[in-house]
Amino acid sequence: MAEQQNDKSQARVIGIASVIWASSIFLSRVMGLVREQIIGRTLGASRTADIYFASFTLPDFLNYLLAAGALSIVFVPIFLAHLERGDRDRGWESFSVIANFILVVGTVGIGLLMVFARPLAALVAPGFTNGSDIDTLVRLTRIILPAQFFHVIGGLLSAALQAQNLHVLPAMAPLVYSAGIIVGGLVGARYPELGADGFAWGVLAGSIAGPFGLPLYGCLRTWMRWMPLFTFRNPDLKRYLWLSVPIMIGFSIVVVDEWIVKNQASYLGVGSLAYPQYGRTLMKVPIGMFGMAAGVAAYPTVSGLIATGRVVQAYALLTRAVRLMLLLTFATQVCLTIAGFEAVYLIWGLFADRFTSSDAQETATVLTFLCLGLSGWAAQTVISRGFYALESTWLPTIIGTAVAAIMVPVYVVLRRQAGAIGLAVASSTAIMVYVMLLGWLQRRRFEREAAARGANLDNSSNMLGGALRLALAAAIATGLGLVALTLAMQWLPGVHITAILLRATLLCTFGIAAYGFLARLFVVSEVAEFEHILLRKLRLR
User: Fold this and answer.
1) Predicted confidence (pLDDT) at residue 78 exceeds the cutoff of 70
2) What angle do CA 378, 288, 495 make, to 5 degrees?
3) CA nearest to 475, candidates 439, 511, 501
């Protein structure tokens, strides 16, 4: 009875955290779309837009070297272990040692990249040969670089809050960050001579106020103790480095895919770097809402289950999270594929001078091929956390790095053969190969962990079967949707707002309805489960 009550309590914690993060990520993606809309309307698909997007490569590289994206994954178990023993002082001591280490290393890294930004520009975008373009790229890079300091330290502060199941302020941080970029962009739009600089300064201001400022405020309210400690002898720093080093030194396809695409797209015509970026912006909405929200919300509980030896329950929770997430992600993939032009034009092209219908069509075409990997991008955010909960950071990194190394020639060949579309195909292929390998290896790892405890994984805890049936349903629904698109273009031609809205509504409704029917026909249990959850939330059942 006590165990059942504990399970219900854990489910309630995950449910509340999921709602908080799903709401935050949804609002963040909406603000992200507003942000990108302003970028698109201000910079269009011009060379300036290409340069602006390329200027994030070096800052993102530094962010990656500092393992900023994995700070919560690595630090939450460390901090949580001290809290569970009732030793908050030791927890904040560990925080201080790790934060001070990052502070020193990050400052050195920012300084070096500031100094060598110009020679490194040739590696970032080798296709940019105009001196003025390179000057702009270097200037924007130097503005954005210091923002990484606030992202990284803020990530550690957010991890400390999440370990205490305090999710609201960390969840609000991306909203404030996007707001900073929007304000910077609006100022830049008011003064055209600023060009992309307004957005770059907005990145810096937003990172200070959001990812750093809000978690800092939250930690201060929990009586944070940030002490001037710096020692390599601290066992938690050693543990942090051991878990983070593979993420720091490995170049997983999850991270380098975007770098490779930007690098190769710089060789193509004007706008070819911007088109994939605008497409990714639309993809990030379902990735964040479904994949990231599920991963972030489930991770502390999965870690707790593994720590207490309940490996079978942990894997069952991961499997359920992945399959429910894929149900929703594939539905979005169908919609974005058949109504991609309408979505792109509504956001960037409507009433805009610098983003034409031709640009919208180019972006939508690239988006279609990027969407082939949408389920993979969403799934890896959840699956990877299963490894991190087991404190296995090396294997995902090794697999991701191997996939990246093998796929680099594919990016180059497909870029030469098919331009931006070829890069989109290479990107989707790479992430799908990675996530299928990762899912297979994860099940084997959990089987070994369960066997070591005298247990076996439930056969119903299988990600692959449900995923394949959902993929088949999505593929057929997309095919039917493309036929409907041909008819819709005949009945509702043009790019005026009425035709765009009607086509988008009709196509998405038809595509999602067909997908839902086919998924139920293929006996995907998550359809009925999702309907039950939805009706229960609406108090209809």
Assistant:
1) yes
2) 100
3) 511
**Residue 38 CB burial class (10 angstroms; 0-12, 13-18, ≥19):** buried
Please tell me which of 48-62, 182-196, 280-294 the model is most confident about, judged by mean pLDDT.
48-62
Residue 446, Cβ density class (10 Å: 0-12 exposed, 13-18 middle, ≥19 buried): buried
H-only helix segments in 116-167: 117-124, 131-144, 147-163
Decide: helix, strand or coil at residue 93.
helix
- Say how far apart CA 330 and CA 57 lie, in whole Å: 29
Residue in the structure block whose two tokens are 């088109």: 275
Predicted model pTM: 0.77
DSSP output for 292-347: IHHHHHHHHHHHHHHHTT-HHHHHHHHHHHHHHHHHHHHHHHHHHHHSHHHHHIII
What is the distance between the alpha carbons of residues 15 and 104, in angstroms, rounded to a whole number?
A: 38
Question: Could you give the CA distance from residue 70 to residue 376 in angstroms, rounded to a whole number?
Answer: 19
Name the pLDDT band for 338 (thresholds 50, 70, 90).
very high
Please give the distance of CA 200 from its chain centroid, rounded to a whole number: 20
d(CA 407, CA 430): 7
In residues, how long is the chain?
A: 541
334 with 367: CB under 8 angstroms? no
Among 62-76, 199-213, 216-230, which is the least confidently predicted range?
A: 62-76
The residue assigned the tokens 């978690």 is 215
What pLDDT digit, counting tens, does each position of 273-297 carry?
A: 889 989 998 898 888 777 766 666 6
